[in-house]
């Protein structure tokens, strides 16, 4: 790092750290004032329960101290005692007996109703701070047990039942206040979050923990304005940075789906253009993949919630291409992959297990098509060099959870396992047979 230029780089980050100490003001500590600590984050411990994290603005905290918790001026005052107190040391936490004003700390002992935005106060002289507003959910996914013929066949799978999924979602909601979930009949759950990115991160964490599940396509939430018939949907501010040569293509695509251009200017580096749009959330689902494709992987998209706006009706297609669905159970093979390559690209390769209704690729056309990717070449008396069977067509299309959530259609479900991700048509007989 260096603060003098690229020709005077040092081997460590000390110049950066020194600059932080010089430029960032010290916390304003009011040690002689009543206790005030805004809860800015939450954690959870299986043995100690909810862990509250924040910086003490005034006063101090001690183990065993009685405290009050209040949300804004009009919130009810709840009282509790500090059972464990921690300070942050390097990348971890260590127990401490007392924390003074100006320090960031964590404590346990609070009730389960504590939320981000609560103020820890002196119960005898409560002075709550302005609360932090947590953004409301904008997108919903349906979670449920995996019902495919390949369910529970992954060696890394640990948790498969609806009860396991429910317990994991309940634990997540204790610390992730932007996440909501509710039963949706039978064994499924409606999970609401702040966009597909947040829900995709949850899915990725769960699959790494050994969960198997099946999720539906993302659905953008709407709301009615109280006392009227006006329907509203979430809008976001999208900031796109792309090379100048792709600027027109990006603008055309964003305007086509209903984006409203707010500003256009220079990007962070020479040769880059920054575009700012206001756009409904539903139009942004899958947009990152489209922009990456049209810019050869060079366009960057970031977005944040802007407001609730009037619902934009009209026909909207989440994608331009249809699905290639498999029609039989078996394994994909070189012969079929090579023969079917003219129809589009494939998610599967030779030896991949497949079943009826499983989406195995992306069609070249807008319509869905059905193929038997497990059908092998018939035997004959001709001897050849197996050239045809060795050809497997175009390279395999690799997608992660985010890409699948952005590409899948409303009549499809995503099968999430610790090892594989599979897309399947919701009306597949292979699912209802279990």
First and last CA, distance: 58 Å
- Give the integer mean of the pLDDT values: 88
Helix content: 10-25%
Strand content: 25-35%
Q: Main β-sheet: number of strands, strand sense, barrel status?
A: 11 strands, mixed
Low-confidence stretches: none
Keywords:
434 residues; 11-stranded mixed beta sheet; 8-stranded antiparallel beta sheet; single chain; alpha+beta; globular
List the topology elements.
Layout: H1 14-23, E1 36-45, E2 49-58, E3 60-62, E4 66-70, E5 78-81, E6 84-89, E7 92-95, E8 98-100, E9 104-108, E10 119-121, E11 139-144, H2 162-175, E12 180-183, E13 189-193, H3 196-208, E14 213-216, E15 219-220, E16 223-224, E17 231-243, H4 247-256, E18 260-266, E19 272-280, H5 281-284, H6 287-294, E20 300-310, E21 323-326, E22 330-331, H7 334-340, E23 344-346, E24 353-354, E25 358-363, E26 369-371, H8 387-390, H9 401-407, E27 412-416, E28 421-425, H10 429-432
Parallel strand pairs: 21-26
Antiparallel strand pairs: 1-2, 1-10, 2-9, 3-8, 4-5, 4-10, 6-7, 6-9, 11-13, 11-14, 11-15, 12-13, 14-27, 16-17, 17-19, 17-20, 18-19, 21-25, 22-24, 23-25, 25-28, 27-28
Helix pairs in contact: 3-9
Structure description:
- It is globular, with a radius of gyration of 27 Å.
- The protein is an alpha+beta fold and 434 residues long.
- It has helices at 14-23, 162-175, 196-208, 247-256, 281-284, 287-294, 334-340, 387-390, 401-407, 429-432, and strands at residues 36-45, 49-58, 60-62, 66-70, 78-81, 84-89, 92-95, 98-100, 104-108, 119-121, 139-144, 180-183, 189-193, 213-216, 219-220, 223-224, 231-243, 260-266, 272-280, 300-310, 323-326, 330-331, 344-346, 353-354, 358-363, 369-371, 412-416, 421-425.
- Strands 11, 12, 13, 14, 15, 21, 23, 25, 26, 27 and 28 form an 11-stranded mixed sheet that branches. The chain has an 8-stranded antiparallel sheet with strand order 5-4-10-1-2-9-6-7, covered by helices on one side.
- α3 packs across α9 (401-407).
- It has 10 helices and 28 strands.
- It starts with 13 loop residues before the first helix and ends with a helix.
- Helices cover 19% and strands 34% of the residues.
